[in-house]
Write a structure and sequence with these properties.
four-stranded antiparallel beta sheet; binds adenosine-5'-diphosphate; binds magnesium ion
Length: 140
């Protein structure tokens, strides 16, 4: 098994409810290490570039509005198979469809306000990490 790094974002619905520590506990209990972390308020341009892959989807504007509606916490998670492991811990995009014990099922509000983002592939993880972090900010 390979040690990987993945990009995680704790989204505005979760920072608003002051549950960032609770979410970090899910990661740590799953064996993922938080090797970089910072809290920031995305600009609209950053949100649009980050989610450019969804630019044609009907919910794109609403998604960008939501992602800039409050602060987020961006993080690099490291561990064995970190990308798949994080997607597992996150759960389904729509919290209503999620498995018990996943972050989105336990803490998500709805299909948009689903508390966390996680990279979906090795390539995207590398791109998304580089979008937010210099290599010197990641301390494994
Ligand atoms: P995931 O975050 O599980 O990878 P997607 O990449 O499909 O899901 O979507 C990115 C984000 O867009 C979701 O996490 C969610 O915040 C939002 N989103 C997805 N589908 C919808 C939808 N049908 N309506 C509103 N927002 C959505
Ligand atoms: Mg996605």
């Amino acid at each position: 098994m390979d040690v990987e790094r993945t990009l995680s974002i704790i989204k505005p619905d979760a920072t608003a409810r002051n549950i960032t520590g609770k979410i970090n506990t899910f990661f740590e209990e799953a064996g993922l290490r938080i090797v970089a972390q910072k809290r920031l308020h995305l600009t609209r341009q950053q949100a649009e570039v980050f989610y450019a892959v969804h630019a044609e989807r009907s919910f794109f504007n609403e998604l960008c509005d939501y992602m800039i509606s409050g602060p987020v916490v961006v993080q690099v998670l490291e561990g064995e198979e970190a990308i798949a492991k994080n997607r597992q811990v996150m759960g389904a995009t729509n919290p209503a469809n999620g498995e018990e014990g996943t972050i989105r099922k336990e803490l998500g509000v709805n299909v948009q306000e689903n508390s966390v983002h996680g990279s979906d592939s090795l390539d995207n993880a590398a791109k998304e990490i580089a979008f937010f972090f210099a290599e010197s900010e990641i301390v494994g």
